[in-house]
Amino acid sequence: MKGARFSRFGGPEVLEIVDLPDPRPGPGEVRIAVRAAGVNASDWKKRQGLMDRDLPQTLGYEAAGIVDEVGEGVSDVAVGEQVFGLSGDGAAQAELAVLSAWAPIPSALSFAAAAALPSAVETAARALDQFGAARGGTLLINGASGTVGSAAAQPAVARGIRVIGTGSPATHDHLRKMGTEPVAYGEGMTERVRALAPEGVDRALDVAGSGVLPELIGLAGGADHVITIADFAGARQYGVRFSRGDSGRAVYSLALVGELVDSGRFSLPVGQTFPLADVAEAHRVGEAGGVRGKLVLLVA
Questions:
Q1: Which is more confidently placed, 263 or 212?
Q2: What SS3 class is residue 208?
Q3: pLDDT band at 130 (very low <50, low <70, confident <90, very high)
Q4: Domain 2-116+269-298, what fold?
Q5: Residue 157, Cβ neighbours under 10 Å: how many?
Q6: Architecture of the domain delimited by 123-245
Q7: Which of 258, 215, 247, 254 is nearest to 102 (CA)?
Q8: In 20-100, which ranges are E strands?
Q9: Contact status, residue 141 vs residue 175, Cβ threshold 8 Å
Q10: Residue ranges per domain, the chain?
């Protein structure tokens, strides 16, 4: 099969589409013929050598496609069904991928739209679960207009949580459509949040990593009420929990988000799509920023 790989660290130019061995699903796994695969910031961090140091490396932790092989013990899905999900081996940007967690693709979604969901949805659900955001409480999301922020805000609203979200003024209409009360980030953010919630908030989730953990701690009444998925150094400095997948993954969220999509209570826009062969260009666009929505690779 063809798949994305790099054999040296560097810029997007180190990415190649090469022949790779066809993967086989193990017990409790399925293999899909990939139709679309999500692109994440972790991909270019890997490519730059900021994560795993082994070489060569493949790319991709989420994909959507058609099941073509099931592993031992799998009984909830059959060959030919359309699913989206998470790939534990980081090789989903390829013609075939093994998924360790999956759910049926909602009927309203294309393969590209489904491939945009898994990583953002699981990350957001894990963070919400870890600090027990509850109905009737107030949650502040720093970076609510981004992919993970949007994936956290909509299920939180569906849970009956009041959500205040930071974003640039250009994103405020988008935030309101999600049921979120928008505030502008930057200088004066604390005062703007307190204008909406004079007593502060119950929980704060940082998905932007923009150096505002002290402000979030003040608004939420302590470091134990704040979680970040984007500021590892700040988390250590201020005693804030850093959410990561090795502490347990919220894979149930894949099926749950399908229900929310079907009921019209969740959407996550695709910002731009690229053929698999143009993975390097997808990295360039992603690193440059400015595209609202998820970047997705299409596999013929």
A1: 212
A2: coil
A3: confident
A4: Quinone Oxidoreductase; Chain A, domain 1 (3.90.180)
A5: 18
A6: 3-Layer(aba) Sandwich (3.40)
A7: 254
A8: 30-39, 57-58, 62-70, 82-86, 96-99
A9: no
A10: 2-116+269-298, 123-245
